[in-house]
Design brief:
CATH architecture of the domain at 3-38 and 122-255: Alpha-Beta Complex
Distance between the termini: 66 Å
Structural class: alpha/beta
Strand content: 15-25%
Largest sheet: 7 strands, mixed
Number of strands: 7
Shape: globular
Order of helices and strands: EHEHHHHHHEEEHHEEH
CATH class of the domain at 3-38 and 122-255: Alpha Beta
Number of helices: 10
CATH topology of the domain at 3-38 and 122-255: Lambda Exonuclease, Chain A
Radius of gyration: 23 Å
Oligomer: single chain
Length: 303
């Protein structure tokens, strides 16, 4: 990517970062598959859709505070919870109004924070990446020369060793030891796009080409934490998708067209069917389909 005028801003509060009008990869990676959603969230004024933080997102915020920013998490005192330990009611709302998300964990979430911390502490490479020399929550701003769009990114961790390492913390329900689950999750969540974008932003700002490593942390017992690194091919694919997304964003901003590929057409599945291939076999799986074999006894004779 051709990024110009890149500048690094450390210690910028997240609300101040979010207030910038630059485009982030978490936004434009919606394009071109979800242009209507993108428009409703980020372009329409006022926004057509209200963004809602899920409990998982809030816990992710707490995990970032605990493991990246050095801000300790804590539980809601029992007197502010309901009789069965729920974060509801007037007492809790009064407590929540006076405290940040990091001070509002329930017992299950606190156990997850402590379990993840123990898993990190047991692995020297994880500890070095998360807590070694280098800043966290690093904001980078730049201009994309081809489209003229102002862009930005926020790195979880910039480990200053060699040409640099970008550490990206992902708190998840999936098992970080399950290779197939990780690969599928990275694909479904399009994680290669931010991996490529953050790499290119830091390269534009420093002239160095950093490594990129995901830190996957499971918020369920046994609270496994594992490092996974995308290949050069993965980064290249993310870079190509980012380029297409930014070009698409430029076109849509100029034309006012926010319709998707499936707009106003009759759609069919990739192979012409809305059923999976195994629906037409006697043994569901990856076998080639023997179309309608199960109905052969009803075949019309050609005699």
């Amino acid at each position: 990517m051709a990024l110009a005028n890149a500048r690094i801003v450390q210690s910028m509060p997240e609300p101040e970062y979010r207030a910038h009008k630059n485009w982030s990869v978490s936004q434009f990676k919606m394009l071109p598959k979800k242009p209507e959603l993108f428009h409703g969230f980020y372009v329409a004024s006022p926004p057509l859709f209200e963004f809602e933080e899920t409990p998982g997102m809030l816990f992710g915020t707490c995990a970032h505070g605990e493991f990246l920013e050095g801000r300790a998490c804590s539980m809601v005192p029992a007197e502010y919870l309901t009789s069965n330990g729920q974060r509801r009611g007037k007492a809790y709302e009064a407590y929540r109004a006076m405290h940040g998300a990091l001070e509002c964990l329930n017992a299950k979430e606190m156990a997850a924070v402590q379990g993840i911390r123990a898993s990190c502490d047991a692995q020297s490479r994880v500890m070095d990446l998360l807590w070694g020399k280098g800043p966290t929550e690093v904001s980078i701003f730049a201009n994309d020369e081809e489209t003229g769009l102002d862009v930005m990114g926020r790195l979880d961790k910039w480990r200053k060793v060699g040409c640099g390492i970008i550490g990206d913390l992902k708190v998840t329900d999936i098992d970080p030891d399950d290779e197939r689950a990780i690969i599928n999750h990275v694909f479904q969540m399009q994680y290669v796009q931010p991996a490529a974008f953050y790499t290119d932003l830091l390269h534009a700002a420093t002239g160095e080409r950093p490594e990129f490593i995901f830190v996957f942390a499971r918020k369920k017992p046994p609270y496994t934490v594992r490092l996974w690194q995308p290949s050069e091919n993965d980064i290249d694919l993310g870079r190509r998708r980012n380029r297409l997304a930014l070009l698409d964003l430029r076109r849509r901003l100029d034309s006012g067209d926010w319709t998707g590929d499936r707009h106003n057409r009759v759609n069919a599945g990739a192979d012409g069917s809305l059923l999976p291939r195994y629906a037409y076999t006697d043994a569901p799986g990856d076998n080639p389909p023997n179309t309608y074999d199960e109905f052969s006894e009803f075949a019309i004779s050609e005699a």
